[in-house]
Write a structure and sequence with these properties.
This protein has 191 residues and is an alpha+beta fold. Helices cover 46% and strands 17% of the residues. The chain has a single domain, classed as Nucleotide Exchange Factor Grpe, Chain A, domain 2.
Length: 191
Amino acid sequence: MAKKDKEQKEQCSPNETPAEETVETPEVTQDAPETETQETKVTPETPEGNPWEEKYNAERDAHLRVAAEFDNFRKRTVKEKEASYGNGKSDAVAKFLPIYDNLERALKQETTDAAFKKGVEMTMTELVKILNGLGVEIFGEIGDSFDPNLHNAVMHTESEELGENVVAQVFQKGFKIGDKVVRFAMVQVAN
């Protein structure tokens, strides 16, 4: 042992003192898995599950679940808020559609009173401007291709002039806001 102490003193700097007792650790061989450490633990074995650790993990999991549920609630609320504005706008536009239909019928009628006709035209122009300002798109023209997602076909006709699945006559215009259809166009389709 004296020889060993002497070697340790030589390796230490003048300010350091050698440790009285050293513990040698076994080296890891190549056959051992990489996860093994070089130190051996001398602590007594703990029971399988520490009750405090289990309680901490359970509380942490509960906290994470509540946080995730709140985040989902927040996202869902934002989405519902945006959808409610769009739904309210489309409901308001739907209430004005009979006025549009009546003005369109009035414009199609023959009249000798030019001032009356001009007044109806100005009212219709202003209504269309307001609808466009709200993001409403008016669709359903003669010659459009038939789209069952936009048109409601109430009649069909055989016509050699028009191609297949083409709108031949429009009974009521269709209206949509973005991708949401407020009212389908009521049309006659050529086959």
